[in-house]
Amino acid sequence: MQNRIALGIKYDGTRYHGWQRQIGLSSIQECLEDSLKKLTNEEIKVFCGGRTDAGVHALGQVVHFETSKIRKDSVWISGVNHYLPRDISVSWKKNVSYEFHARFSAISRYYRYIIFNAEVRPAVLYSNVFHVPERLDHENMNEAAQLLLGEQDFCSFISSDHQNRSTTRNIQYACVRRSLGYVIVDIQANSFAYNMVRNIVGSLIEIGKGKRRVEWIGDLIKMRDRTKSGPKINSRGLYLVCIEYPKKFDLPNYDISSSLIVI
Asked: Where is the active site (predicted)?
């Protein structure tokens, strides 16, 4: 009998070409599936809640897979972690019903982008934050971010690979704040398209630098033209913080205060 299992995953995406398995390239999915195979001696296919791009990190990724093996929760966690590289770890395990799907059962995804806003570049966290030396006006950035709220067509912030896919998304929360030498951009939506968060933050940075007015974000939404918006910024400062699911699945809640990098 096959059991469906959900795992909570954390990873530093610096060394990986994104979540999805790719021929000849290292990926989070490949590392996790290979580790599960070593633990179970089965071919395991893992499905994730958020397909992060190359270099993107995760604090609250959720995955599911099926297996015939029965193990204690602690054994699943310690066993998989034993075979995983140091920059990927399993934080929790839960048996779930066949109704649960890591991707399609998700209600929303919450991302955070961390900008190191100081004249001199960082050293210790260089691979985990994006450096902007010019002083950013985070209040103007936050005011502009509120124009993103609601169900709208975000074509201006979605890279061209979307082709015939829908570019409409529902952004439920957006906030830009300053914490010491960092500017933190939080954004939550029902789902995100390819490079959408990085393109949005790139435009907000233009406003923070004073190159664009606050209302420009609203103008971009109306234009529906990716070539008119700000640059796509580096993935190193982007984190998938958590994924929300219906309460009936009773998955562990991610404690955002438990991570040092989240500031």
From this structure: 53
